[in-house]
Amino acid sequence: MKMAACRPVVYSFGKSSCSWRVRAALAFKGFPFDYVSVNTKRGENLSEAYRKLNPNQKIPALSIDGTLLTQSSAILAYLEETRPDPPLLPSDPLQRADIRSFCDIIGADIQPIQNLAVLREISKNVPKEEEAATRDKWVAKWVTRGFGALESRLQGTAGKYCYGDSFTLADIYLFPQVNNARFFHVDLTPFPTITRIANTLATEDAFASTHPSKMPDGEDTFKA
Questions:
Q1: What's 197's DSSP letter?
Q2: Which end of the chain has fewer CB within 10 Å, C or N?
Q3: pTM assigned to the model
Q4: Cα–Cα distance measured from residue 218 to residue 12, given in angstroms and rounded to the nearest whole number
Q5: C-alpha distances in angstroms, 143 versus 105, 110, 134, 183?
Q6: Known PANTHER family for this protein (predicted)?
Q7: What is the pLDDT of residues 152-210, one digit of tens each?
């Protein structure tokens, strides 16, 4: 979809980890952006107006360079290709592939099965007083499985960040997912390397400046 060229516009919901990836990448690369809240808690992504913008009715979406991009992985790839400095990926092709593989564990294996729509579906037939515990148990199962794989991989790559002492795309993916895990009370004690890196990332301006609490809809949090 072609759009008028302007300052980047992120269609986002503060609590969305996929959207946070994009916000953090833009901040890391030094590109201010405008923010349009699409509150998935209220179903704003299902509105006719948003469907016309993004037929898949998901967030994030990014208006940039006269076009609209959707899906966080595609958006992040475009940002890296068109705005390579500072880089989120190393120059070595094998290292780039390894980092992308790490990111896919989060973006393809963990996050999609603990998003809002899924959590509402798995808890819809349980008593109201059991909904939160049902969601927490579901999230813990899949996050724990995925984090186990990430923790093992990090034993061979981690420095200050996921891959040595350079901030990379892996960090862009990891921190929002850790934030979600903490929100759903996942026990992170089995993952000391992930926890250490996440605590470091919490102080990075790319995340601090784009934290859900800093977004216009940041106070509208939800338990799903």
A1: H
A2: N
A3: 0.93
A4: 11
A5: 10, 6, 14, 12
A6: MALEYLACETOACETATE ISOMERASE
A7: 999 999 999 999 999 999 999 999 999 999 999 999 999 999 999 999 999 999 999 99
